[in-house]
Fold:
Amino acid sequence: MLQSCDIRNRCEFIAGGWASIEHELRRQGREHSFDLVLTSETIYDTDSYKSLHDLLACVLARPQAETNSLNQQVPAVLVAAKSIYFGLTGSVLTFKQYVGARGVFDVDSVWQSGGSMPREILRLTWK
Structure:
């Protein structure tokens, strides 16, 4: 529970086409300005992987230099998705393979549901 922090001053919610968002943030000089990126239901189409990956690589903050603080937060992207999108080209597996092939981020599954429509949350961090 956030008691002494005004979350509205720390969060920004962005919607739109990934390539146009990337272009606009670059135009504003805001590359690597987000320490946490949350995205959901964005990996159902393999044709969109490149523009999504490029946007994430543009906006995710770089880790700070080595620090002795155990509380140091590591910049990350959290991707919530269905494990399989029936009738569509994307899936958690194909996205993980794409991210691995690009070699920019480490990707791991940090949560999985059970049931008839399994869902996962992936975490992407800088290599």
